[in-house]
Amino acid sequence: MFFNSLSFALFLPIVFCLYWFVFNTSKKAQNTLLILASYYFYSCWDWRFLLLLLFSTFLDYFTAIKIENSANPGMRKFWFWLSVGINLGFLGVFKYYDFFAVSFAGFIHGFGFNVSPVLLNLILPVGISFYTFHGLSYIIDIYNNKIKAEHNFIDYALFVSYFPLLVAGPIERATHLLPQVKVKRSFNYNQAKEGIYQIVWGLFKKVVIADTCAMYANAIFDNYESMNSLSLFLGAIYFAFQIYGDFSGYSDIALGTSKLFGLDLLRNFNYPYFSRDIAEFWRRWHISLSSWFRDYVYIPLGGSKGSKFKQIRNVFVIFLLSGFWHGANWTFIAWGFINALYFLPLLLLNKNRSNMDTIHLKRDFNSLKVIASILSTFLLTCLAWVFFRSKTISDALKYIKNVFAFKFDGGFEYLTIDRYSSEVLFLVSVFIIIEWNSRESIHPITGNFKNLKLLLIILSIFLFGVFSQVSEFIYFQF
Within the chain, which residues score under 50 in pLDDT? Predict the structure, then answer.
C-alpha cells in the first residue's frame, strides 16, 4: 500500500474516523487501533513479513526488560548482545548474505579458484532497515541507562510499527515518540489542518516532481552510453530531484499523516539542496539516519575528539556504513566513500560546523560567494548521486567519463517520453523557487494565503502529476 495509491486514500480516512469517533475513549483504545491499522498496512505487501516484524518487536521488548532488571553486568551484556546480534543477523541474512557470497566468490576467482556460491535469493522485507534501527536505538539507550524499558507491550509495539514511519522512516527515537504514545491524544484542529497541508505538499513532491524527473532520469541512465554530455549532465540533476522529491515527499506525507493522529514525528529533511558545504548537506538530508549514526556510531568511536587520524577514521566509518545501510551493492559503498572524501577537507580545516546559520542573501559580494557555495555543493552531490543510481561502479565511472567528454551534438536527447523537456525544466525551476522562498518553514503551505496555496498545489497535482502508474517510493527498497 503506497502513500500515493487509491488504497491508501481509502485506508487513511477510515482509520482517522475510527480513531477519533470510535476508539477515542482511552489511550489503550487509540494505540490498539493504530497497532491493528499498522499491521494491516504492513501485511499489504506480504503477510509473511509481518511475522518477522512481530518477532523483532517481541525480542526487543523482552530483552529490554531483561537488561533493565539484570543486576549482574554480565547478564545485562548478554541480553544486550542477544538482541543486537539477532536483529543485525536478520538484517544481514535478508539484505546482505547474497552480496557477501557473490563478492567472496569473485574475490576467490581472482586467485584462480572457481566457486559457485549458495544464494538464498530472499525477498527483502520492506522497511527492515528502518524498524531494525528503531529497535536498536531503543535497546542501546536502555543499556546505557538513558531511558527505562517500556513494560506496556502495546505502547512499545506501536513505537516500532507505527504505519506512517514503518516502511521508510523517519527513524524514530524512543525518547521522542514513546512519551507521546503513552498518553491519550485529544483532537487538535490546527494540528490536523497542518497535517493535511504537509500531506498535500509531500504528494506534490512525489507525483509531480519525483515521478516526472524519474521519466527522464531513468531513460538517460538506462541508455547513458548513447547519450551526449549535455543530456547526461541533466540526467544527474534530474535524478537528484527525483530522489529528493521522492524521499522527502514520503517523509512529508508520513509527518502530515501522523499529525492527523496527534503524534509528531522527527523532521527528516530541511531543504538540503540549499546547503553551502557537504557537512551542512548531511545536517539537512535524511536527518534521522544521519543523527542515528552520529549518536550510536560516530560519538561512541570518539567523534571529533582524539587525534586527526581517529577523526578521519570515524568519518569514513559512518559514511561507509551509511552507504552500506542503503543496499547490498558496491555502488552504495562508493557513494558513501565519495561523501567521506567531500567531508574530509572540512574536518581537517575545522570548518565542518561553519554553516549553521540561516541563509540570507543581500546585494553584495558575500552573497555571490554563498550562491557559488550552494551551486558547487549541489553539483558535487549530483556527482555522488551518479554512483547511487548506477547499477555498477563501472557504469558510474563510464557515465561520469561521458559527462566530461564534452560532447554536445544534438542538444538534449530524450528517447521516447510523453512530456516535453521544457515542461520538466519548468516544473523543477518553479519547485526550486517555492522551496527557496519557504526555506525557513517546515513546508511551503504556511504563512499567509494558506488556503490559496493549498488550492494551487492540489491543482498542480491534477495537472502535472504522474498517475499513469503508481510508482513505489525509492526508499522502500532499503
Answer: none
How far apart CA 191 and CA 188 sit, in angstroms, is 5
Instruction: Examine the residue annotation and report whether 134 is marked as an active-site residue of this protein.
Output: no
- 18-66 confidence digits (pLDDT tens): 999 999 999 999 999 999 999 999 999 888 889 999 999 999 999 999 9
Handedness of CA 82, 84, 87, 91 (dihedral sign): negative
List the catalytic residue out of 134, 286, 326, 443: 326
Q: Where are the domains of the chain?
A: 6-187, 191-276+359-477
Side chain identity at residue 131, one-letter code: Y
Angle at 115 between CA 111 and CA 118, to 5 degrees: 145
Q: What is the pTM of this model?
A: 0.93
